[in-house]
Amino acid sequence: MEEDFYIFTRHFLKKGYLNQAEFELCERLVGKIRQLLPPPDLVIHLDAPLERITERFARRGRPLEITRQGDLGELQVLLEDFLANWPGKMIHVDASREDAAYSDILPGLLEQIRAELL
Question: Of 6, 77, 102, 115, which one has the greatest count of Cβ atoms within 10 A?
Fold first, then answer.
């Protein structure tokens, strides 16, 4: 939910896909949901350089994308702002390698998650 609102909803407002009233409706909805549900105990940030993300975006070749390849830089800025202001626990994971299963880092990541949540 945080990523959808703080990154994509803000991006959609800037792109004109949402008007101010629609954005504010989303903002109120997120606020109400946060009153009912606690924030995540832990955020796992998969990090890769913008060049790698751009390559992966192009390779996906999805027939329908709301976000364009040219938007990735702006999304990166919104993500960095979100991460810089996140008040909770966070683990950063280097996702720049081509191992889609993350088999080389998964055991260590599981240990990090256990350590953060216990």
Answer: 6
